[in-house]
From TrEMBL:
It comes from Coffea canephora (Robusta coffee). Keywords: ATP-binding, Nucleotide-binding. Gene3D superfamilies: Ribonuclease Inhibitor. Residues 33-42, 141-153 have a biased composition (Low complexity). This is NB-ARC domain-containing protein. It comes from the Eukaryota. Residues 7-19 have a biased composition (Basic and acidic residues). PANTHER family: DISEASE RESISTANCE RPP13-LIKE PROTEIN 1 (PTHR47186:SF24), LEUCINE-RICH REPEAT-CONTAINING PROTEIN 57 (PTHR47186). Residues 1-44, 136-162 are annotated as: Disordered. Residues 462-587 form the R13L1/DRL21-like LRR repeat region domain. InterPro entries: LRR_dom_sf, LRR_R13L1-DRL21, WHD_DRP. The keyword Transmembrane helix does not apply. Pfam families: LRR_R13L1-DRL21, WHD_DRP. The keyword ATP-binding applies.
Length: 707
């Protein structure tokens, strides 16, 4: 926020001063009726005269007799003194100057051309043109700034704002050869992306929770960002989101297991100094309403967030009148009647870009959703839908499809591969789909693919992942038992997916593949070394892959091994430089934890697990001995948990664990005692349960931290 205020202050300091502004009576001068107006340089000594002369057409210098006065500013315009003015030629004849070549304007010169004609910052409504805003070559009067002032008063109420050009980047406004700021081509894209993001975020209200990914995907669906070169819009949006958190406009509220960190908009967001000098924002385009206030919303509304107790016919009829609406977010406690009337509703709202129906009590979507040809964002997460209509595959502009929490969803449209612009397919593999649609590998724009079910038939093999090189975030690959050979596993080409940060590799709970083949398959599923989290479920092999202990995985911070019951040897994980969390569950084949677990053979003078903070061993039913720990290992360990290790007899030394705060020993019935060198002074809490010998040794009176 402070940085934005500084920019506003600097931009104001660069604008022309008021003392040189032209006399307002000059506005009463007339234009020749038979010829349109054009720009001439304002009477300001500080503006470089030669720049303006070089930009004017030759006809502008031809002498003529002034016509009777004609108003330039519409009578209903209140801020006439802030608008621009001009004549097609000077008021007195004079000899034309030698022509000069048209030269490209810098951002500074383009700004002077606009702001040099006002006494205050312009924040005024102008006619909206759908073309991309740009700075064009100076031409005749029908493209001039003075034309903006001669628009009817209706033009000012149907449009959007002009952003201060000092706050625009040169690359976002100027083409290669430009000479004139065409104000009448400025649209809502001209506003800074950050301001546009704030405007759209107002649809959520101060008490509405949202996650970062969903908000950024909504911004992208609105076309807010125009990244340069090969920038990814979601990355640009993520940067804006982080800046709004820093400015305290988005406030973290809680952590959710399904969506991660949740945020809420600051209730004072619209009073922020970010809006200084931009008083006439088009807030009438963005509205929150309940069913009572719905009737007072103008039919020209573009973005609506509707809160209601019941979605009835009356609401449907009102919504059908909003034919130009681009965003519809429904928040209803009960969606009675939705299945019966929504087909007709979507036939009227064909301009929708964003449709958010998440958490509604609906069981299906109507086929008419396929008529929303401009739809970029569809959210039906946490609903009871069982399938999507096949017409969804005709939504060729769809970027985001959110299905997370749809526990009854059993299939996707069979032609999902036609959604070639799809960037985010957000779903839950566990408890949802029975299979993946054929040909998903053709969706090469995908960035989010929460899960992939490996199938046996053509078009559903793991090789469909080969060309999805833009995947990022979390990916769960399930039903790995359907991979027929190691060569087929290698077709997934996971090592080239450098933006995947979390990978889950999962077999079904009951499968009978060859142990050796399964080990080879897992070896071929090596991810990119930039991976941060790895989870392996229900692996039946006797040893884990060699790459899991490779120190080149320098960014991995968490490893979870779950029900790898046949593994008899833990890999050398101690040399992973960034590993912070290690969780091992139900690895019943392990009998000994020795030096191999801490460091590879021959490695000397290196501390094992240098960054590990949490270690949990749960249900290692055959573990008997833990050995091989050396002084200096686990220097940052905070939590240590041993659960369901009934054959474990002794623990390694704890005295050198100077960072240890919390320790749990549960259901380790054969454990004789704690290490002889005692408990580190740093330990604050010990939880001991179903360990009779340990409980005898530790008395509450001797160690107050015992629980």
């Amino acid at each position: 926020m402070a940085r934005r205020q500084k920019l506003l202050h600097e931009s104001k300091s660069k604008r022309p001063k008021d003392e040189d502004a032209a006399d307002p009576s000059f506005l009463k001068e007339s234009l020749k009726p038979s010829r349109p107006s054009n720009i001439i340089p304002p009477r300001r000594g500080r503006v470089k005269q030669r720049i303006f002369e070089s930009l004017l057409p030759d006809c502008a210098w031809e002498p003529f007799e002034p016509s009777p006065p004609k108003p330039v500013i519409p009578p209903t315009t209140k801020r006439a003194s802030e608008l621009v003015w001009g004549l097609e030629s000077a008021r007195e004849p004079f000899e034309p100057s030698p022509p000069m070549p048209v030269i490209p304007l810098t951002m500074k010169h383009a700004s002077e051309l606009v702001w040099g004609k006002v006494t205050e910052p312009i924040v005024q409504y102008v006619k909206k043109i759908p073309n991309k805003p740009k700075v064009e070559e100076l031409s005749r009067a029908d493209q001039s700034v003075s034309d903006v002032a001669s628009q009817s008063s209706k033009s000012y109420t149907e449009s959007t704002t002009i952003t201060d050009p000092w706050e625009m980047t040169e690359s976002s406004v100027l083409d290669q050869s430009v000479s004139k700021v065409a104000l009448n081509s400025i649209t809502d894209h001209e506003r800074s992306p950050k301001m546009s993001c704030i405007l759209f975020s107002c649809l959520f209200g101060p008490n509405f929770e949202f996650d970062k990914n969903s908000m950024v995907q909504l911004w992208v669906a609105q076309g807010i960002f125009e990244p340069e070169n090969e920038e990814i819009m979601e990355i640009v949006g993520g940067t804006v989101f982080d800046s709004l958190v820093e400015d305290n406009l988005f406030v973290p509220v809680r952590y959710d297991n399904l969506y991660g960190q949740l945020f809420a908009a600051n209730e004072n967001m619209l009073d922020s100094n970010l809006f200084e000098g931009e008083e006439q924002l088009p807030m009438e385009d963005f509205m929150l309403a309940d069913e009572v206030g719905l009737v007072s919303i103008p039919s020209t509304i573009k973005h609506l967030s509707l809160f209601c107790e019941n979605f009835d016919l009356h609401i449907v009829e009102v919504l059908k009148s909003f034919t130009g609406m681009q965003t519809l977010m429904l928040h209803c406690e009960c969606a009675t009647g939705f299945n019966h009337v929504s087909h007709d509703l979507f036939l009227h709202l064909k301009r929708l870009r964003t449709l958010d129906l998440h958490q509604l009590d609906i069981t299906e979507l109507p086929s008419s959703v396929g008529d929303l040809e401009y739809l970029h964002y569809l959210d039906v997460s946490e609903t009871s839908i069982k399938y999507l209509p096949e017409t969804v595959d005709s939504l060729y502009l769809l970027q985001t499809l959110k299905l997370k929490g749809c526990l009854q969803l059993c299939r996707l449209p069979k032609n999902t591969r036609h959604l070639v612009r799809l960037r985010h397919l957000d779903l839950d593999i566990i408890g949802q789909l029975k299979s993946m649609p054929v040909g998903l590998g053709s969706l090469t724009s995908l960035q989010t693919l929460s899960g992939f079910l490996v199938g046996k038939k053509d078009g559903c093999h793991i090789g469909e992942l080969m060309n999805l090189v833009n995947l990022r975030g979390s990916l769960c690959i399930s039903r790995l038992e359907n991979i027929s050979s190691p060569d087929e596993a290698e077709q997934a080409n996971l090592s080239n997916k450098k933006h995947i940060t979390k990978l889950q590799l999962q077999w079904s709970t009951c499968h009978s593949d060859s142990v050796q083949v399964e080990e080879q398959i897992l070896e071929r599923l090596q991810p990119h070394v930039g991976l941060k989290e790895l989870e392996i479920f229900f692996f039946n092999g006797s040893k884990l892959p060699s790459w899991i202990s490779d120190p080149s995985f320098a960014q991995i911070v968490k490893i979870t091994l779950f029900k790898c019951r046949n593994c008899s040897l833990l890999p050398s994980l101690g040399m992973l430089p960034s590993l912070q969390f290690l969780e091992i569950y139900e690895m019943n084949g392990v009998r000994v934890i020795d030096q191999v677990f801490h460091r590879k053979n021959g490695v000397q003078k290196l501390y094992a697990f240098p960054k590990l903070e949490k270690l949990e061993l749960d249900t290692l039913l055959n573990l008997e001995v833990w050995d091989g720990m050396e002084n200096g290992d686990f220097p940052n360990l905070l939590e240590r948990r041993f659960k369901q290790c009934p054959k474990l007899i002794s623990l390694p030394s704890l005295s050198h664990l100077h960072s240890l705060k919390h320790m749990e020993i549960i259901a380790c019935s054969e454990l004789q005692s704690l290490p002889d060198d005692g408990i580190p002074a740093s330990v604050e809490t010990i939880i001991v349960k179903d360990c009779p010998r340990i409980i005898e040794q530790l008395r509450v009176s001797e160690w107050p931290g015992l629980v």
